[in-house]
């Protein structure tokens, strides 16, 4: 238990669906991250929020839309996804953006059919 | 471009020692990290090196040589529970983490 929770743990969705992933951290951290993890590939940083402000968007397609209503919650809204978007989506948090240790949630296993 | 290289998979025997290497080429350097990830679970932090040398933490040690762009994670007295993927990551000049693809370590009895 890392103090970062993610729901749902598994999600199967069609290409025309709209769904949202939720992340919550109970650590009092100020920075939160979304990563994509595909088999045998490096973790891909998607979005970074520091003090609720988005600081990074690493050329992520617009079909992924993040939302950070407060420093404890982070959402990833999904719409019109492609099969290649199937992956493990990990949320992480850290005390601040420049602090070294990130705490990860267990991830959401997403399958797009 | 930025690149982190580590072996895809390694096999070792319970009770033995294994060294997992990581080489990197990044835009600047602000520290190197090792994370452990068991199948189906979250990555968990193992170690952090920012200066050259060896950092020891129980059965795990991590070494860094900045001039060579090289690090290794050393695991001693291997246990079956050490079977996992080990992720190397470097923080670049923009404080972004650049990740390797991970090394899957298989421990055999």
Quick one: how many beta strands of chain A? 11
Shape of chain A, please?
globular
What is the overall pLDDT average of chain B?
A: 95
Helical percentage of chain A: under 10%
Can you walk me through this structure?
The complex is a heterodimer of chains A (113) and B (109). Chain A has no helices and 11 strands. Chain A is mainly β. In chain A, the strands form 2 sheets. In chain A, strands 2, 4, 5, 6, 9, 10 and 11 form a 7-stranded mixed sheet that branches. In chain A, a hairpin with a 6-residue loop joins strand 4 and strand 5. Chain A is globular and about 35 Å long. The termini of chain A are far apart. The mean pLDDT of chain A is 92. Helix content of chain B is 0%, strand content 57%. The model of chain B has no long low-confidence stretch (mean pLDDT 95). Chain B contains no helices and 11 strands. In chain B, a hairpin with a 6-residue loop joins strand 4 and strand 5. Chain B has 109 residues and is mainly β. In chain B, the strands form 2 sheets. In chain B, strands 2, 4, 5, 9, 10 and 11 form a 6-stranded mixed sheet that branches. Chains A and B meet through strand 10 of A and strand 5, strand 9 and strand 10 of B.
